[in-house]
Amino acid sequence: MTSQIDETDRKLIALLQDNARLPVATLARRLGLARTTVQARLDRLENSGVIAGYALRLGQAARAALRATALLSIEPRTGPAVLARLKSLPQVRRVHTTSGRFDLIVTIEAETTEALDDTLDRIGEAKGVKGSESLIHLSTKLDRGA
Questions:
Q1: Closest CA to 45 of 55, 32, 54
Q2: Which distant-in-sequence residues (6+ apart) come within 8 Å of 30 by Cβ?
Q3: Is 106 exposed, middle or buried (0-12, 13-18, 19+ CB in 10 A)?
Q4: Looking only at Cα atoms, what is the longest distance across the chain?
Q5: According to the 3-state scheme, what is the secondary structure of the chain?
Q6: Are strands 66-74 and 104-110 parallel, antiparallel or unpaired?
Q7: Spatial distance between the Cα atoms of 132 and 74, rounded to a whole number of angstroms
Q8: What are phi and psi of 112, to 5 degrees?
Q9: Backbone angles phi, psi at 134, to 5 degrees
Q10: Which residues, including other chains, have CB under 8 Å from residue 112's CB and lie 6 or more apart?
């Protein structure tokens, strides 16, 4: 099911991205719409899959102490096996396919440098991984929660 998204939907989505806990009445007031109209738009956006759900975003105090990105080059046709290995590592938070020099972008979170190093070693040892480069995140300058 596809849904047409208009400017009001975009404004509604932007408000929810800033704070998904805003009550429907507050959303309606900020958009200058009736509460029932906003609720109907939310229902339509949820039912059509435009809004897939609502999630908790942890603040800096609750996040893992260290975050890193690993850029992986993998052997042809080994994607499913490499992904299975990555899924088995609890410190691996996200995996994206990409174009260009690397095949996968892996986001890692760990509490200690030892745990981060161990995770990077396990990724590098995975059958099908032919090369990797890791980047440790130092500070966050912008986080829109995407």
A1: 54
A2: 15, 22
A3: buried
A4: 57
A5: CCCCCCHHHHHHHHHHHHCCCCCHHHHHHHHCCCHHHHHHHHHHHHHCCCCCCCCCCCCHHHCCCEEEEEEEEECCCCHHHHHHHHHCCCCEEEEEECCCCCCEEEEEEECCHHHHHHHHHHHHHCCCEEEEEEEECCCCCCCCCC
A6: antiparallel
A7: 9
A8: -135, 160
A9: -120, 145
A10: 65, 66
Q: Cα(44)–Cα(51) distance, rounded to whole angstroms?
A: 9
Give 140 or 87, the one with higher predicted confidence.
Answer: 87
- In angstroms, the CA 9 to CA 38 distance is 9
d(CA 19, CA 21): 5
- Residues 69-96 pLDDT 10s: 999 999 999 999 999 999 999 999 999 9
